Structure formats: C-alpha cells, structure tokens
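From the shared-data thread, chain only:
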Amino acid sequence: LSDGSSDSHMEMPQRIGPFIILEEIGSGGMGTVYLGRHEGNQQIAAVKLLPPALAREGGFRLRFAREIEALQSVSSPHIVQLYSSGEDIGSVYYAMEYVAGETLSQRLRRERRLPWRDCVDIVRQLCVALKAAHDVGIVHRDLKPSNILINTNGDVKLTDFGIAQVFAAEKLTMTGGVVGTAEYMSPEQAQGQRATKRSDLYSLGAVLYVMLTGRPPFVGQSSVDILHKHRFGQFDLPSRYVPEIPVALDEIISQLLEKDPDKRVPDAFVLSRRLQDLLKSQELRSADMPTTADGKRIVAAPTPQREGPGDATLMRDLVRNEVSRQGIPQGIHKL
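Structure, as tokens:
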C-alpha cells in the first residue's frame, strides 16, 4: 500500500479475515482492493484493506464504526452493499459487494464523453441511490466518477458511500475541515461548511457535466484554484461543447450547479422526475418526425436560395423564344 510510510508496500495477502484473497483488483493512496471469497458461504466480495498507518490514526476506529453503522441502514439496488468489516494482519478492512464492470472514470477515459441519453440514464440511477441515502440522513460528500461503478448490464452502483469522507483517495484537508475532491465539490464544502443533500446534488451536476462535455465545469492549476472557482467562477454551458443536447438539459445542469444551495433542485426525486419529463418530451418530438424503413429520421433539406430568375421564369422565356423562332403572330403567343 502506498501511504508515504514504511508500510508503503505489502505483498498480496492470502486471506483477510474470513475472505480467501483471489487477486488484486484496484489500489490507491488510501488502500488496496482485493477480490475475495468467503471461506464459509463462498460469497464473492471486494475486500478493501487500509494502510496500517491509517488504522493506527487516533479516533479512526470510532469514526469507521460510525460510518459502517450508517451504511448498514441504507438499502438500494444502486448502492454497493456493505457486507462486513473487521481487523486483520495489523490493519482494518471492510468487505462489500463486488461489481463486475468498470468505474465511470474508466469509461470516460476510454470514450471521453458519453451520448446525452446515456448520461441521463446514469444520473437517474444515481438519483435512486442518493434518495435512499438522503432519506436516512446520509450524505455522500465525495460523489465523483471513480466512485460510480457500472456493471456489464449497464446498472449503476454508487460506492464508498458515507465513508468517502474518511477513506477518499484524493482527500483534501484544509482550514475549516474541507474533505472531498476539488473538481466535484460544492461551494459550501469548499468553504468548510457542512455538506447537505444539496451538496451531493451539486456534485452530481458536476458529474453530469463531465460526462456530457469530457471536462469538469471548473479546472485550474491547483485544488485551491478549482475550489475558488466553485465558489465564485462561472462555468460554460454544456451546449457550448455539445450543441445537440436539449435546452432543458442545459437548464437542469445550470440549476444543479447554482452557488446558493437553496436555488438548486431540491432533492434527488425531483431531479429524477425532471429528467424523466425531458426524455418524454424528446420522445414525443421524435415521434412527430417521419422515419425510413430502418428507423432513421427523415430531415427535410432546406430549399436552396437561387440568385436570378426562377424555374417558372426560365420556362416562360424558353417558350417565348421558341414561338418567336417559328414566326407565330405576336397576338397569338403573348404570354
């Protein structure tokens, strides 16, 4: 594990608690995640082992236990389920649901940005996760692409829920207790204020922005620079980079990224309904457009503007010339 101490490297353990370790599936500054199989019930799980240095941190176990208790109170098909936690090999671990697939970060690195309908689908699933957590008083505090898992069926799972403030790999700690990831942090978190459910919605707006455009709403030379922009800066509308998105989607993102929490979408349920209404309106518009046999839309090409005489004038002149050539009296061929 890499934590800048003598504990920075550990060989893959053969077992952690009751889990037989099969392989390493991920690592970061705050721990390594292994694929494990429970020796009793044969359940497959993702087992995260934290650095011994962090496990020895004063007050850590109390905070860890408090967060575990909170996670156990959340039940949602779009939140990675926590199985168990414990201590072993001189450190602390927890076991959670294993999701076969990839993180949203990995998908964005591969595709850079996603079609707007895919973005809306992902966010609507995340709304289900956030509503379940917010309903029991839990705020994620560190919503970002690397904490969003997508399985092989396209189902979205939110992970590191609640314990992100303790275990986040890109944890930022400044005066005022700022904890989170700069690119996706709400203005109030950047000020060191308490995070609320609308802070999560701001972060969700930033995630939606990066999915659509391939870049976060604010970038800078340092984390401090980015946090300052979250508090005082103005972002470019997503339609500047993706002009084909619906106007309503621009408006939803702008409201999610309001500096004042009271001006944001009030909760995840309302956001999900607005996105559903957006999809319905787009489907109605599409239904009114004619299509070919293979389902492609037929878009009428604009009639080109021609300079000079039109088709009717040209035909009239041709007829007149032909009549004159044949010597027909003027009174008869007057047109």
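Strands lie at 15-16, 19-28, 31-38, 44-49, 82-88, 91-97, 101-103, 148-151, 156-158.
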